[in-house]
Amino acid sequence: MKNSFRNLDDADFRGKRVLVRVDLNLPMENGRVTDATRIDRILPTIREIAGKGGKVILLAHFGRPKGGPDEANSLKPIAPVLAEHLGEPVAFAPDCIGEPAKAAIGKMRDGDVLLLENTRFHKGEEKNDPAFVEALAELGDVYVNDAFSAAHRAHASTEGLAHRLPAYAGRTMQAELEALAKALDNPVRPVMAVVGGAKISTKLELIGNLMKKVDILAIGGGMANTFLAAGGKEIGKSLCESDLLDTARAILKEAAAGSCRIVLPVDAAVAEEFKAHAPSKIVDVEHVGQGEMILDIGPKTIDAVERLLADVKTLVWNGPFGAFELEPFDKGTVEVARAAARLTEEGALLSVAGGGDTVAALNHAGVADAFTYVSTAGGAFLEWLEGKSLPGVAALRGGST
Ligand code: AMP
């Protein structure tokens, strides 16, 4: 991935109407924001553009409205929350195109911030409809995309606009792209990937792409069981995708033929029940009983992964090593995460992690802040791990007029 997109250093915002695509798809309960991480991530871009004299016009989607306005998916309640975090007023316009938007923009002074209503209230947003793109483009002079998490969608506000207006990456987008480039595109080698989580079926493309790019691939979580079963091991009642045994064998064969070393668990924490504090024991993977299930990697595997980590320079992590929500089956994930955090803090490792459960697992281990970069982008992060081109990013690289 070349760092060829333009960022906020390259634009003159003074007096300009700046359409800024942000991620405000915040978790809410009973009309209240329960986690404002996404707001905090976009503040640097908003402050910088406002500070440089631009009129900051925020575009965002919220939820999954069925192509028309509905109160449950309105961005209106987010405006005061954003204002509180920003420490500046944030105006709101009840539509993202047409007269309501134009009237609100007409009242803005340089440095003001305005939030437009949910872009998905118009069907043209998700269809990337040229007429809707045009209606958005009329409202601005410049386009900034700071929503990496929506960049895997070719929607009007995430992709179409980048072809219509001079386009720039916001600071959060820039940080994400630079971290991801360092982790997989131009990494310092050796590179190790950790792929865990429940199932192989959701991560086949990801494994296929990583195998081509990394030197070591450590596989954990429920998906490792399918690989163990493919190698002829008895895995008892463990989670296993028996229709993917051939696929797992093919992956192992391809890795052996290439230059990627696959590391599988050699021991495991097993229990008869899938619940916190279920009676458990540690066994080698050759000795899993018929009534038992593998719920975490064991100490020998933790040790082996930590020794490998000590010798690599770059780590990419998606998915937990075990059922980390259920103590004590969080041990493998927590111990390896802490080792990676320590190495990162010592300057010996560049560590990038992402994907929903991975962020939760690193928070649980108390080390999310110690990693070089933790992506909260979910789907976009996974598509990047799969080696796919993200339309919102591709448009920033080559699409501006
Ligand atoms: P994913 O969303 O694919 O990253 O999967 C994350 C989920 O995998 C978490 O909820 C874990 O509890 C679950 N998981 C990890 N290891 C195991 C295992 N050995 N058996 C069952 N579930 C697991």
What does this structure look like?
The protein has helices at residues 37-51, 78-86, 98-106, 123-127, 130-137, 156-164, 171-185, 204-213, 221-230, 245-257, 299-311, 331-345, 356-365, 379-385, 391-398; strands spanning 17-21, 28-29, 32-33, 55-59, 91-93, 113-116, 142-145, 167-169, 191-195, 216-219, 261-263, 267-271, 280-284, 293-297, 314-318, 350-354, 373-375. The chain is of the alpha/beta class. The chain has 2 domains: 8-171, Rossmann fold (3-Layer(aba) Sandwich), CATH 3.40.50.1260; 187-385, Phosphoglycerate kinase, N-terminal domain (Rossmann fold, 3-Layer(aba) Sandwich). A 6-stranded parallel beta sheet has the order 5-6-4-1-7-8, with helices on both faces. Strand 5 (91-93), helix 3 (98-106) and strand 6 (113-116) form a beta-alpha-beta unit. It is elongated and about 70 Å long. The two termini are 21 Å apart. The model has no long low-confidence stretch (mean pLDDT 95). Bound molecules: adenosine monophosphate. Residues 197-199, 202, 221-222, 239, 294-295, 319-320, 322-323, 325, 355, 357 line the site of adenosine monophosphate.
Q: What small molecules does this complex bind?
A: adenosine monophosphate
> Strand share of the residues?
15-25%
Top CATH class of the largest domain? Alpha Beta
Low-confidence stretches: none
Tally of discrete structural domains: 2
Global structural class: alpha/beta
From the structure above, extract its key features.
401 residues, alpha/beta, Rossmann fold, six-stranded parallel β-sheet, binds adenosine monophosphate
